[in-house]
Amino acid sequence: MTGLAPGFGQPLHATLALVQGATFPAFRSTILLMELGAGGVVFNQKGEVLLIRDRMGYWCFPKGHTEPGESLEQAALREVAEETGVEARVTAALSPTRYTNNKGIEREVCWFSMTGKGKLRIEKGLAGAGFFSRDEALRILAFPEDVALLKEALRVQLREKP
Ligand code: ATP
């Protein structure tokens, strides 16, 4: 036997994918308490990073919930395009973040480093969006998880440069 029982020795999103198909009701209600999302840390050609200002006024990265049948990467690209109009492509996978949102819901968000271009268009409901220098982004990001995420994306970018 080579498989692992759900919840043991694998990333949370893999466990979620396994048990999302389960018919056992207790599993399903457990799943609903943890909502999965995907998003992007998007750099433009100048090396600036794309941030959005959410409806609460927090600067963060574009992201959202995954839709049925969609890969995490597809969900992240779709959310970036929907929220900002930026067409991006994935360059690397980053570490997931976990937090409890303002409604008390546990979130796990899977992130990808991306390069993007296109005219910024801010989705209705958001308070703003823009490309920022690395230092400015590190200064205005609202959540420590997102500061750590940007630092990781910058390290990954440096490693990938020829
Ligand atoms: P979606 O994933 O579709 O964008 P959503 O807009 O409800 O859904 P959430 O991240 O679940 O997004 O909720 C947003 C709120 O959660 C923020 O306004 C803020 O209050 C809180 N929040 C977001 N990120 C963090 C974090 N890293 N730490 C603590 N609270 C956070």
List its traits.
single chain; 162 residues; alpha+beta; Nucleoside Triphosphate Pyrophosphohydrolase; five-stranded mixed β-sheet; three-stranded antiparallel β-sheet; 5 helices; binds adenosine-5'-triphosphate
Helix-strand blueprint:
Blueprint: H1 12-20, H2 25-32, E1 34-43, E2 49-53, E3 59-60, E4 63-65, H3 72-84, E5 87-93, E6 97-100, E7 106-117, E8 128-132, H4 134-140, H5 144-160
Parallel strand pairs: 1-7
Antiparallel strand pairs: 1-4, 2-3, 2-8, 5-7, 6-7
Bound molecules: adenosine-5'-triphosphate.
Adenosine-5'-triphosphate binds next to strand 4.
Describe the structure concisely.
With about 160 residues, the protein is an alpha+beta fold. It contains 5 helices and 8 strands.
Structural commentary:
- The protein has 162 residues and is of the alpha+beta class.
- The chain has helices at residues 12-20, 25-32, 72-84, 134-140, 144-160; strands at 34-43, 49-53, 59-60, 63-65, 87-93, 97-100, 106-117, 128-132.
- Strands 1, 4, 5, 6 and 7 form a 5-stranded mixed beta sheet that branches.
- It is globular and about 45 Å long.
- The structure holds adenosine-5'-triphosphate (ATP).
- Adenosine-5'-triphosphate (ATP) is lined by residues 37, 54, 56, 58, 60, 63-65, 99, 101-102, 107, 143, 145.
- Adenosine-5'-triphosphate binds at residues 37, 54, 56, 58, 60, 63-65, 99, 101-102, 107, 143, 145.
